[in-house]
Amino acid sequence: MRSSRLIRIPFWFTYVFLYLPILVVVIMSFNSSANLFVWKGFSLEWYPTVFANEAVMTGLRNTLIVAASVMVLATLLGTLMAVGIHRYTRGGLVRAFAIAPALLPDLLLAVGLLSLFSLLTVTLGLHSVIIAHVTFAMAFVTAIVLARLASLDPSLEEASRDLGAGAFRTFMRVTLPQLAPGMVAGGLLAFTLSLDEFVIAFFTTAPTTPTLPIAIYSMVRFGVTPEINALATMLLFVSVLAVIGAQRLTRVTDAL
Amino acid sequence: MRYKAVSLLATAAIASLALSSCASGGGEEAPLDPDADLTKQSLVVSIWADYSPADLAETFEAETGIPVTIVNHATNEDIMGKLTAGGDSGIDVAFVSGQYAQALNEAGLISSLDKALIPNESNLYEEATQLAYDPGNNYSMPYAWGTTGLCYRSDLVAAEPTSWNDLLTPAPDVTGKTTMLATERWMALPALKQLGMSVNTTNPDDLAAVKEQLLETKPTLLAFDDTTFYTKLVSGEASLTQAWDGWCNYGIAEDPNIKFVVPSEGSDLWTDTMTVLKTSKNKEAAMAFINYILEADVQSWVAENILYKVPNEAAMAAVDPAILEAYPNLQMTPAELLKQEVIVDVGEFSPEFTKLATEVMAAG
Amino acid sequence: MATQSPTPGVVPRGARRGWAALPFLTPGTLVLALFVAVPLLLVTSYAFFERGRFGGVVYTFTLDNFVRLADPLYLNVIATSIGTALIVTVLAVALGYPTALVIVRLPPKWRTIALIAVLLPFWTNFLIRTYAWILLLNNAGWINQGLQAVGIIDEPLKMLYTQPAVIIGLLYMYLPLMVLPLYSSLSSQDAQLTEAATNLGSNPFRVFRTITLPLSVPGLLTGCVFVFVPAMSNFVIPELLGGGKTVLIGNLIRDQFLKARDWPFGAALALVLTILLIALIFAQQSASRRVIEGPRERKVKRDA
Source organism's superkingdom (chain B) (predicted)? Predict the structure, then answer.
């Protein structure tokens, strides 16, 4: 099935829009001037300095640990929640409850969680950030999987049950594969949101375990430096490689 | 049934919060042990990014044997949010501005300093031990100090600015090319000073007059900007900005046409200080850290590299004259600084300043 | 097709409710109860107390915080926030819907790439991206230089530090949150259905209006909420791209918690925002249900 020409204009516009600032970041990472607004000439000097920057490296490691854990936990919990809601509840109450965290002002959740953690005298660290991020990331997964469920054809499940498959088997063999695109989209989103989340992480992490956005936030007191642009460029480059690699290896497309 | 459980839980939660705040508020602290084995302690220090030597942790540990982790915060508000939220933040030493140290002290969150363990306090200027937010430096030790003024491109302005009025009612050639600080106390400062009022005013009528002035000024501004005003000067987007003296120096470093002036109506004297949290279990090491920072060579490094004035007489004497030459505002003497008004916490009145800032920023 | 309740006759009645729901709903509910509901109750309770002088709360009951909300200043900020978020949402639909539609119709290999490409910019950092927009939008910025070089404009356009700059920044930040749910619900549509309709002679627009659009409504509504809500409460972009000259409700809440150290008033503001948002979710959920079930129910009745 082909899309008409007209509809491709906003499609391409979206990608130009999304990548224009990225282009700026990449180009400015090769700027020999430390001032973001002045181009002085091509230079690679900022790339090695990123690796020497301990704050950035610690932050990067912490962030990857958090984002990966959040992706797994949120996808698991969110998918279960969505299926449960879709099958077993009527009315909007449980739905609203499950999706609400995605929509809470981050500051509200941050202050609330900090109050709770200090009440329970929980020692802060990466685990408290993971918990905090799972709450809203899970809500995003739930919402996306629910949207998927809402437009699925239940006759397949019916057929499976009619043909004698048990509830568990039907769920694993029929329901889950159908949900895969929603889960992949939701998991990706959970990873992405956690990777770049600042406000909640700031309040719920220990001072000794800053995530990358926190490290960057405190570094841009004097504006973004080419060093930070170099970091962003490398992050992008690695993500692109990872995506290509994953695609080669597992043929992600089959799942979609 | 369920509602009952929820309300019970909420009540229990609130009660325990109240209890825990009582527990931390009352009681005298245990006296420090001057003979404590410092190598068994370790420190977490929170400071603004790029505001201390990059190898501070290594040199401090080499000298004292105390392992220290340096963590960063971006603004006073950030670190205050964390420190006032209750519980143990895990931070031993926090760098905050003087008026915030004052607030932390009144909230019972920071310890008094044990001067016996900080002999290097004698390196400080006499003037720096009697500042209004904490006379006697009982709970805060000054790290850097300075004032607020106008930072401008001398090649882009027709006339050199001398008054806050040059910012508040800009000449046609700079209209649309000026910025003001966005943090509320400093946003109010130019108008307060121009109207002959105190920067620490607690009179609502004063703020009403300030608001009127700022609403007139707002359409002439390029932006409210706390963080990147000097890059706007370098790029030429702005030609006149309200700025902290030390930050203006970052602009001067890139463009010698950039100059700094304290307007004739006067300004504030702000101080960035070191405080020790009550929750710290390493107070002796914390005192040793503060003492180390006050050493002349550490603080002269700060003046030479961070380009902020330090309130440390021994350190300022050691600063390279070429640097003082290049950044004239580093030459301001304590006497000159003290002509400005020391900024202090206004306690209950502080929401009025926030409201003023909101009203000005939200105005169509 | 999808209904809220299980299709009767498929599974023995009774077995579907009760115990069977537990393994699905329990883990998530526990997490949400402990780490969302309890913290929110804590913060919400602050709204009914007096502020501590230096932050925190004094436990004296008061309703003053809600009285203060009636100030035209705050109502004005709330109105501006809703207006700004609405514009951002409309633009996100205008861009996101066609984008998702094209992605779904791409060959499988390109589909994944296109989908991931939507998210990829966000694997850098929000501050870095926002600063990049400052470089693009300022008077001597890339866009102005480009437009002047091509000769479209003579004088640089004043873009940075204006309301439109804030809208562009917010749209940039939240556009993927529109594309993903739309993709998710569009991709689950039965391709055979649209193909059949086309083969049977329906023109593409008619196919879109009668089949594609109604089926994508759940994803569309989800996307709208995902974009509208954070756009309303973001506080970094109004500051950086709006030059601090625009205040949204997120700035207001942040200022109460971090600057004024007036937690109770901040909590009251947040409570109002939360109530607004919960109402919005309910509206979204019931609208989504009506759209899916409505036509079918009518049809069933007619058939009967």
Answer: Bacteria
Q: How many CB atoms lie within 10 A of CB B70?
A: 21
CATH topology of domain C72-296: MetI-like fold (1.10.3720)
Q: Which residues of chain B are within 8 Å of residue C73 when distances are taken between CB atoms?
A: 355, 358-359, 362
Whether residues A51 and A39 share a domain: the answer is no
Residue B276: predicted pLDDT: 97
Taking the Cβ of residue B244 and every Cβ of chain A, the question of whether any pair is shorter than 8 Å is answered with no
Buried b (16+ CB within 10 A) or exposed e, B213-228: bbeebeebbbbbbbbb
Which residue range(s) make up the domain with A20?
A: 1-43
Of the residues A119, A129, A204, the best mutation for testing chain B's interface (the one with the most B CB atoms within 10 Å of its CB) is A119
Say how many Å lie between the first and final Cα of chain A, rounded. Answer: 17
CA distance C85 to A119: 35
Q: pLDDT band at residue C128, thresholds of 50, 70 and 90?
A: confident
Decide: B89 and B24 in contact? Cβ < 8 Å.
no
Same domain, A220 and A106: yes
Domain ranges within chain B, ordered by starting residue: 35-145+270-333, 147-268+345-362
The answer to whether B239 and B152 are in contact (CB under 8 A) is yes
pLDDT tens-digit series, residues B227-283: 889 888 988 889 999 999 999 999 999 899 999 999 999 999 999 999 999 999 999
Question: Residue C125: its pLDDT value, please?
Answer: 83
Contact of A103 with chain C, judged by CB distance below 8 Å, is answered with yes
Same domain as A225, residue A113: yes
Q: Say which CATH topology domain B147-268+345-362 has.
A: D-Maltodextrin-Binding Protein; domain 2 (3.40.190)
Q: Give B-chain residues touching A114 at CB under 8 angstroms.
A: 85-87
CB B141 within 8 A of CB B121: yes
Counting residues of chain A whose pLDDT is more than 90, the rounded percentage is 25
Task: Spell out the domain ranges in chain C.
Answer: 72-296
Same structural domain, A150 and A202: yes
Residue of chain C with shortest Cα separation from B347: C53
Q: Please determine, looking at this structure, whether the domain spanning B35-145+270-333 carries the CATH number 3.40.190.10.
A: yes
Q: How confident is the model at residue B14 (pLDDT cuts 50, 70, 90)?
A: very low
* pLDDT at C209 (0 to 100): 75
- Structure confidence at residue C7 (pLDDT): 41
Q: B16 CB near a chain C CB, below 8 Å?
A: no
Among the ranges given (B27-31, B191-195, B221-225, C72-76), the one the predictor scored with the smallest mean pLDDT: B27-31
**Rounded Cα distance, B113 and B322, in Å:** 36
